[in-house]
Write a structure and sequence with these properties.
Elements (H helix, E strand, L loop, with lengths): L1 H18 L4 H43 L9 H58 L13 E15 L2 E6 L7 H4 L3 E6 L4 E6 L3 E10 L7 E7 L3 E10 L2 E7 L8 E8 L1
Antiparallel strand pairs: 1-2, 1-3, 1-9, 3-4, 4-5, 5-6, 6-7, 7-8, 8-9
Helix pairs in contact: 1-2, 2-3
Amino acid sequence: MKYIFKHIITIVLMLPITLIGQNKKEVQFTLDTLTTVHESLLNDYKDLQQQWKDQNEFFEHVKQNFFPAEDINLSIKQASVKFDDVYKDLENKVVKLVEINKSLSDSLKKQISVNQDINIQNDIYKGLILSSLNQASFPKSESDIQGKWNLFLNPVLLQGNPYESGITSINPFAVNDSIASNKILSIEFQKDELATIRFSGDVEQKCFYAINDFNATKPYSIQFSKQDEFKLTLMVSPMPDGLMVSYEVPEKTETVIYYLGLMKQ
């Protein structure tokens, strides 16, 4: 600002010397030139004033929004140093925020992938169950039992006291290995009352079987045995969606556990 006024004063002082020895036209041209220069300098002065105002407003904005209360009255020189520290701190926070967002994004992508895999598995499992339910078989005589039957079972237990009890389902993925190993996957009834039972874990048990009180529409039982080595009684009940079967798990537990489900051919 002092620089602008210095030039204006210099021009004014030199004006009489400049005008000496010039004719009227030349004098008028010189005056017009000086007027133009003067207007230009005034415009520059106004621009500088506006820039100073804008910079001052920005400075005040920075102090009010980023500086603690005790630093509000710092001078521009002091505040400049303080602002550098504030800027570096904000810059570090931005870098950390970017890293956190990337980590969250990666975790989200992984979770989405896991959820998609689970949905696919559920759809496959649902399809298998629905397919199995649509293949209900109803033997009309004991001879119709012969052949291979697939069993779709879940572990359950009786809970409560007499007259105040009920069947409770158990999460099949939460049972211990000994209980899980007693889950029957399939039974093949053969001639001469021979049977092959396949348990979870591809364990097979060959034994004899005997059907007790067979009835096409009412409950009956099938006993499997192999001397004293193996014994199991399968309770069978014809239902609209197939043969409902159950048997007691031969494990010593605090509560009696059963496997309950459908048997389909």
